[in-house]
Input
Amino acid sequence: MSENCDSNCSSCGKDCESRKAPNSFLEPMNKDSNIKKVIGIVSGKGGVGKSLVTSLLAAETAGRGASVAILDADITGPSIPKAFGITERAVIENESIYPSVSAGGVKIMSLNLLMVNETDPVVWRGPIIAGTVKQFWTDVIWGDVDYMFVDMPPGTGDVPLTVFQSLPVAGIIVVTSPQDLVNMIVEKAVNMAAMMGVPILGIVENMSYFKCPDCKKEHYIFGISRVEEVAERHGINTLAKLPIDASFAKACDEGRIEDIGGNMLKSVVDRIMS
Output
């Protein structure tokens, strides 16, 4: 910018920095990190199984031989460490933070790994929470990572906005459940991603049905799904439908999410790795 600049670019012919594209809000990753692809896992509201889907995706992707990490951006409600059975605190050396590593090799950073007591509440305002998410990106030494999954809090507030602006998100997976109310709220998340220019890789519907262990018939506890209508309206794909299965909750409670087999999210992992 010239010393005589009056900030009126329309009357100036100089090719200076002020005339270039709007400033990027992207934060630089740690100099000792090499993260190739960042995938956000979002939902319009809580309680639909977003963290479950994040955990299953990470485990299945790691099972294919990729280097995988999870950045737990759900600062006030972190659940990822428990699902993977991680109880040790993260290592901090010389102002650098190292992620914990699961039995299956998934690198994980979550606020619960920095707390003295995991049950202590996080009573922080939005800017501090957003700053913490940024620090998980800039200050944590992730090393080489092929795929990073960002488990975001529900809704379209500070953290999703921070992640979309500050991290190089290659695409998002939207998690929902069959209720009409949830589908309406999902549209808000889809519309936010469109506003931010973030590609939507597809939708995963959790708790889609219950399969009776006796008669093997599928029962639609929350009603018949209408997720295809939402997906078609926005030109995106429904990649998977997960059943109501008590074994999922049991595995998360016992820290054995990596033990769940079956490749239930194979189509989602295929889409992410394509």
